[in-house]
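User: I'm curious whether this sequence folds into something compact or stays loose and floppy. Could you predict its structure so I can see for myself?
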Amino acid sequence: MAMFGPRITRVFASRGHALWWSAMVLVTAYCVAIDPPAQVTPAPDVAATHAGKKSGDPWAAMKDVAKKREELLH
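Assistant: Here's the prediction. I'll summarize afterward.
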């Protein structure tokens, strides 16, 4: 099996190699995630779904169900 980079037994053979490897992992992560997109737009179907909903209380539907349940029980 072909793997990229140094063998894992060689990386952790010494503290210096382990520190260098971990530093390069952090640098790679930093370089990949340094510039996020300025604005993320939702997919068109998601935008259409949310366009019909009002942005109010997210628990409003559950409160209505609770009220109907209380009316039925009493």
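Summary: DSSP finds four helices and no strands in the chain. The chain has a mean pLDDT of 74.
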